[in-house]
Design a protein that fits this description.
Number of strands: 0
Strand content: under 5%
Order of helices and strands: HHHHHHHHHHH
Radius of gyration: 20 Å
Shape: elongated
Number of helices: 11
Low-confidence stretches: none
Distance between the termini: 53 Å
Length: 211
């Protein structure tokens, strides 16, 4: 059975695994964005917090993925369900580029623009919402883009703790020394990463042009 026939024969399983993969990535990215953007704003507002916040995110980024899953496994609430464990680990990996790019974008806004907004009577929060975030949105999207591609790739490791996704095919293929199974997981994951990179890259360029 060649690879095309294998894909056709197992299309239902591959489709279900792809949806599972997207669910893990989508949930992890949602958590990372909700946490990462406020932390990035905090780093931009309080530069002295940059080292501990970015340092902590950098440490999480450098831990090997299987090791991070292993470290989180004994945690009571996380260890009870594989999907919670996987989403938490993936969100930790996604934090660094989101925090860093958010902070870089906000600090890069021209100070004269801030002063003009302040002269119009805007408060710091209004300046953040109506001036700094819109002007730094392309930087923020660039961070989300990097985080999304990274998370899609690392999510294949989630199968090692039973969270499912396209990694199931890869691990089964490695165990059975079956290239077709490995490709059935690796190729859709690569296509998802390329698709996310293309879509978010196009949005990033559009907002950069608008700005």
């Amino acid at each position: 059975m060649n690879f095309v026939h294998f894909i056709v024969h197992h299309r239902g399983e591959i489709f279900a695994a792809t949806l599972e993969h997207l669910w893990l990535v989508g949930a992890a990215m949602s958590v990372a964005v909700v946490i990462g953007i406020p932390l990035g704003i905090l780093v931009a507002r309080r530069p002295w917090l940059g080292k501990p916040i970015l340092g902590g995110a950098n440490v999480a980024e450098t831990i090997p993925s299987l090791a991070l899953f292993g470290f989180l496994l004994p945690v009571p609430w996380l260890g009870d369900r594989a999907d919670r464990l996987a989403i938490t680990a993936l969100a930790l990996y996604a934090l660094l580029p989101i925090i860093r790019n958010t902070a870089t974008g906000i600090t890069g806004v021209d100070s004269s623009i801030r002063e003009a907004a302040r002269a119009m009577g805007m408060t710091d929060n209004q300046i953040l919402v109506h001036v700094e975030l819109p002007l730094s949105f392309s930087y923020l999207l660039a961070g989300v883009r990097v985080a999304a591609v990274l998370t899609i790739a690392i999510a294949t490791i989630a199968a090692a703790v039973g969270a499912g996704g396209l990694g199931e095919f890869i691990f089964r293929g490695l165990a059975m020394v079956n290239d077709q199974l490995i490709f059935a997981g690796a190729i859709p994951a690569a296509l998802l990463a390329l698709g996310a990179d293309f879509i978010l890259g196009a949005l990033e360029k559009r907002f950069r042009f608008v700005q």
